[in-house]
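Reopening: structure tokens for the adenosine-5'-diphosphate complex, inputs below.
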Amino acid sequence: MIRAVLLALLAAAVAVPVGHFVAHWAGWSTFCLGLALQMIFHFRNFARLDRWSRQPLVDASLEGEGEWDNIFGRLYRHEKDLRDQIARRDQEIAMLIAAGQALTDGVVLLDTQNHIMFCNTTAETQLGLKVATDRGQSIVNLVRQPEFVAYLEAGDFSRPLTLRPERYKDRVYAIHVIPYAGNRRLMQIKDVTQADRLDQTRRDFVANVSHELRTPLTVLAGFLETMQEIDLDDDERRRYLGMMADQSRRMQSIVQDLLTLSSIESAPPPDNDVVDMASLIDKLRRDAEALSGGRHNIVVESDGRGDLRGSEPELISALANLVTNAVRYTPAGGKITLHWQTSPQGAEFAVQDTGPGIDPKHIPRLTERFYRVDRGRSRDSGGTGLGLAIVKHSLNRHQAQLDIKSELGVGSRFAARFPASRVANG
Ligand code: ADP
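Re-run output (same inputs, fresh job):
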């Protein structure tokens, strides 16, 4: 500014002597020429500023002349600071979005009208949304399940909504809506399928246990009532007491198996004791013969090598269950073979029988608690429906697999396969 005034004064200082010594018009012309030069100088810088402001680039250095260079410098720094700030904000927003995307829960941000502002990929999959096309759309137009729409419209978010989505029938979601920033809503979608299944399993289990115990209890109560009300002769009395003893033994077996199952479930990892397989198989054979009472041909086929590492009581319980089942389900005259074989891959203990066999459709469910192919036959042979569940648990704890092969009318083969890490002296 001062520079502009000084230049005007300089023009005047040159113009005055010219006007005095040459001619008036020459003085004025000199003065006007000075001012015009200054104006040209300023217009050039104005034009430069005009061009730059239309497309302010911070990488091309903006240079002006004279005082203009300072103004351009300040503008340039201001623009650069602004851009740095925006870049930092963009980076922070990108980090927040990345964090939202990384969440294993679905997240949807809604505005006050339930329009989608953001949703992460988990929510896209869960609700069948596409953020690229659905942003700005009302979520109730896209997720039309009546219970979801009613929940959002009721506006009471004190409890989450449990939703079984129409697109994934086997999934269960817990949807929490958290109001934020006034009337905006953050929707968090948790996949609770696993917890729901566990809950269902627990409910089924309690129902099954009650049912299993109720039957013998009802029978027992009925006999007691009869004995209280009717005078029975000695024979009848003995017969009734015998049947009552059967029912209480049945309840005892169920409770015993339940206790075994729960102790296996809550026990720490099994020991690493070396279990002598030759004597274990010998014991299993003797127990099987005792249970069979000579009705079956019981054979051992063993390569005689290798022992197992693990908890002896658990391994005995698992393998004895397989042998006991073979004896209980194989009709008299049948053959039961106990196999033991080791290889570099591990070891296998298998029980093969010539019993009734099992329809393939039942095989995947045999290790479920209380699952029986033929309830009556299982009960008559003293089964609780928990044997194979105990086997599966004990084997899992020893990293072993239960493999079941069976053919109706031919027989069954139940094999416990142990990894090499569980084999000792192999
Ligand atoms: P249970 O106490 O009823 O025997 P398990 O869990 O031991 O219960 O076995 C589940 C079901 O598997 C049995 O009810 C039976 O139907 C079937 N099963 C098990 N072992 C055999 C076998 N060796 N031959 C035929 N069916 C078997």
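The first helix runs from residue 2 to 21. The mean pLDDT is 91. Marking as resolved unless the reporter disagrees.
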